[in-house]
Amino acid sequence: MRMRKVKWAVDYLTQSPHLVLEPQTLKGKWKDYLKVDSLHVEIGCGKGNYSLEMSNMYPDQGYVAIEKNESAAGMAVKKFDENEGNGHLALIQKDASDILSWFEIGEVDVIHLNFSDPWPKKRYAKRRLSSKSFLDQYKTILNKSGQIQMKTDNASLFEYSVLEFENNGFKMIEFSVDYRRETHNEDVLTEYEEKFVKKNQPIYRCVWEKI
Ligand SMILES: C[S@@+](CC[C@H](N)C(=O)[O-])C[C@H]1O[C@@H](n2cnc3c(N)ncnc32)[C@H](O)[C@@H]1O
């Protein structure tokens, strides 16, 4: 669903110290920049609560949130800025199809795909964040045993993604078709996830490791 333009958020975006305007300049240097030992990248972060809360919960992990929509990105960095003292968090407001030019080979430890747009029509399948062209890029920037963690409410996207991962050099290490049946305090609910959980809809989740 297309988000309506939120003027204050678009105006706010570029003043935020959490926004990285030229991510290619930090290629290979993200861990030093964020002063962390491990690097997590969330693609399609929406309004940013997942990266923010996860980085608060795990101070030794750095989070780079990527969001192409200006309004959502502006709202995310506003929240980041209001959360004083968290220096291990950054946002890139760009389309993730360029991700290879922002991260060095093997630089990333974990990629998070949370409630990615399903793009149900076959002609738009290449836009799915779990399609082969994205997975090939993720494989390059992930370290040797790097992981991709995916959550979705969408059974068709989940099924499609399982096959794409399987056929493109990843092995499954965790799988659930009702992830929130149990409490998982170690993993924050995203904004979309909260809505689905409230409606008692199952959350599909899998974790993949690079082979
Ligand atoms: C359905 S929303 C989910 C937001 C958030 N992850 C959550 O779970 O609440 C998907 C988000 O991914 C973003 N997105 C989709 N494709 C993207 C891409 N290629 N690069 C960057 N962001 C993308 C959209 O703009 C949208 O904000």
UniProtKB/TrEMBL annotation:
Family statement: Belongs to the class I-like SAM-binding methyltransferase superfamily. TrmB family.
A molecular function (GO) term: tRNA (guanine(46)-N7)-methyltransferase activity
Metabolic or biological pathway: tRNA modification; N(7)-methylguanine-tRNA biosynthesis
Catalytic activity: guanosine(46) in tRNA + S-adenosyl-L-methionine = N(7)-methylguanosine(46) in tRNA + S-adenosyl-L-homocysteine
Name by which UniProt lists this protein: tRNA (guanine-N(7)-)-methyltransferase
Chain sites annotated for binding S-adenosyl-L-methionine: 42, 67, 95, 117
InterPro entries: SAM-dependent_MTases_sf, tRNA_(Gua-N-7)_MeTrfase_Trmb, tRNA_methyltr_TrmB_bact
